[in-house]
Amino acid sequence: MFCQQCEETARGLGCTAGGVCGKDNDTACYQDAVNFALSGLAYRKIHQPAGAKVPANTVKQDKDVVAILFATLTNVNFDKERFKTYLKTIISYRDAYPKISGEPKQCSWIPASEEDIVHLEGGIGLLAIEDENERSLFSLLLFGLKGMCAYYSHAEALGKTDPEIVSFIYKGLASRFEKHSIEERTALVLECGKMGVKMLALLDEANKHYGTTAITKVHCGVGTKPGILVTGHDLKDLEMLLEQTKGTGVDVYTHGEMLIAHAHPDFAKYDNLIGNYGTSWANQKDEFPKFGGPILFTTNCLVPPPEEYRKKIFTTGSVGFAGAVHIPEKADGSKDFSEIIAMAKKCKAPQDLKLTDITTGAGHDAVLAAAPKILQLINEKKIKRFVVMAGCDGRHKERVYYTEFAKALPKDVIILTAGCAKFRYNRLDLGDIEGIPRVLDAGQCNDSYSLVVIALELAKVLKTDVNALPLSFNIAWYEQKAILVFLTLLALGIKDIMIGPNLPACVSPDVLNTLVKQFGVQPNTTVEADMKTLHIV
Ligand code: FSO
Ligand code: SF4
Fold it and tell me: Is the pLDDT of residue 304 over 80?
């Protein structure tokens, strides 16, 4: 196997003998095989000559392509058997299109045996792309597409779709087997960012299904009844579970990125939605055994569970783990959560982690409602600067940098955040500036879009360019959704983004050079030095 798609990749280079995330060789190779076959399907679909006899309706195919590519994102699916099925599905979709005369031979790839997949690494994995820069650019594109598929599946679940985004996913996948210059491949990566803007706007719109978020203090204690812990990002799953647990005596708690649900008015009406339990995904091995009840994974980030609570893991959507109960979607889009509810009834109430309450819900509507006050505070020099510290949390000790950075900020600086990175500093009690909290949390990682909307609106009112605002970006990344968010920020014209704790391993020296020269992208260093670089002190 060779995988370098996340920030925790082995030695900062790539995982080759099992993933740091717990993904084994065979699953990693099957994921490569699925990605390879997806590119063949996309190529066949895109390059058919006029008049070719192609599948008439691709609604199911498109939905599966999105869900399957999402399944290959870090910490989503560790179940090799699921990837075996996915591979067959993709190959059957691909072979429903006529062969194209002169198509690359990869388009008709059929594995001879399982051995062919789990040992053929170089042939179907990204290392098969020999040119370093070509590989770097296609990797960035593929990772951005994985993030796009994650977000698309959430929007789709709430009834929001966009054929232009789906077309781009096929276009990007097909490019693997097409001949392109480095300039063209660079343009495709940037186009992925442009499509990311559309994607994040679509999801922003979709999430309004539950009402506009308001700045909300979320209870982080526990009740006396048994509970189900819901983690991941899929609000529709949470809604369905809340409906099915009504009156059952089972409480529901959010975890990690699900925190934002409490700020949506439609979720506030459930009196068995008790609060948020624990911190970010990175601490689940410590926190989940204390929860007592079962845990529902709706998306990433799943850390392979120890025996202690393995039997309490339930998965749904693209998530998978061998041995865990998977709750499938029915033809009408509903899901039957009775098995997890039955297990919860037999469990003890959660153990109190004694964590303080936290505030979330500072999306663009909530923050822009306070725009006059914010502008007044800027004019009075009581707010000197904003720093976007959105992104991910992770397991490595070096991420203490983000806690230290938040602590070291002058008191007239406001943090704008989204994603799970916030758990590194959202309990620091950084106070407020005349009623405006110093940590404004827009919500999930996709809500980084909200932060840019806020910045663009402030720039408009102040009649300036977004890059001339007193605004710095110090982003933490971990997995491929963060890659899409990063490309989206570039597409929105944001310059001088600082990124850490490490740069993506797939970025070649030449590609890095482009990112630095064209966009001023910079790696983080030390708190002290970065405060200066970002014009904070
Ligand atoms: Fe990922 Fe990052 Fe949103 Fe976290 S981009 S790691 S679980 O912020 O959440 O999905
Ligand atoms: Fe390694 Fe990350 Fe890939 Fe897992 S997802 S195998 S940790 S690079």
Answer: yes
**Domain containing 232 — which CATH number?**
3.40.50.2030
Question: Closest ligand 1 atom to the C-alpha of 480?
Answer: 5
Can you give the residue range of the structural domain that contains 57?
10-208
Q: Are 181 and 276 members of one domain?
A: no
Q: What is the pLDDT of residues 130-166, one digit of tens each?
A: 999 999 999 999 999 999 999 999 999 999 999 999 9
Ligand 1 centroid – CA 477 distance (Å): 8
Listed in sequence order, the residues at least 6 apart from 398 whose beta carbon sits closer than 8 Å to its beta carbon are: 501
As to burial, measured by CB atoms within 10 angstroms (0-12 exposed, 13-18 middle, 19+ buried), residue 53 is: exposed
Q: Is 301 annotated as ligand-binding? A: yes
* Helix runs in 409-501, H state only: 448-461, 480-491
Q: Kindly state the average pLDDT of the residues 385-410.
A: 98
Cα 490 from Cα 492, distance rounded (Å): 5
Q: Is 7 annotated to bind ligand?
A: no
204 & 222 share domain: no
Which residues are registered as beta bridge partners of 475? Answer: 499
Asked whether residue 189 falls in the same domain as residue 93, the answer is yes
Residue 233 counted as an annotated binding residue: yes
DSSP conformation letters of 266-299: HHHT-TTEEEE-SS-GGGHHHHHHHH-S-EEESS
- What pLDDT is recorded for position 119? 83
Cα dihedral 133→200→295→284 (10° resolution): 50
Quote the tokens at residue 513: 């050079």
Interval between CA 91 and ligand 1 midpoint (Å): 30
Check whether residue 261 and residue 381 sit in a common domain.
no
* Section 313-323 average pLDDT: 97
pLDDT of 122: 65
Q: Which atom belonging to ligand 1 lies closest to the Cα atom of 256?
A: 7
- Phi and psi angles of residue 439, each rounded to the nearest 5 degrees, phi first: -120, 110
Q: Ligand 2: distance of its center to the CA of 414 in Å?
A: 33
| Whether residues 392 and 302 fall in one domain | no
Task: Look over the chain and give the mean of its residue pLDDT values, rounded to a whole number.
Answer: 97
The partner residues of 3 in beta bridges, in order of sequence, read 15
pLDDT digits over 70-94, tens only?
A: 999 999 999 999 999 999 999 999 9
Q: What was the pLDDT predicted at 363?
A: 98
Residues 126 and 226 in one domain: no
User: 153 alpha carbon to ligand 2 midpoint, in Å?
Assistant: 22
What the block records as the tokens of 182 is: 């480095």
Task: Please tell me whether 445 is known to bind a ligand.
Answer: yes
Pocket of ligand 1 (CB under 6 A): 233, 256-257, 281, 300-301, 391-392, 419-420, 444-445, 478-479, 481-482
Q: How far is the CA of 121 from the centre of ligand 1 (A)?
A: 28
ipTM for this prediction: 0.95
One domain for residues 161 and 276: no
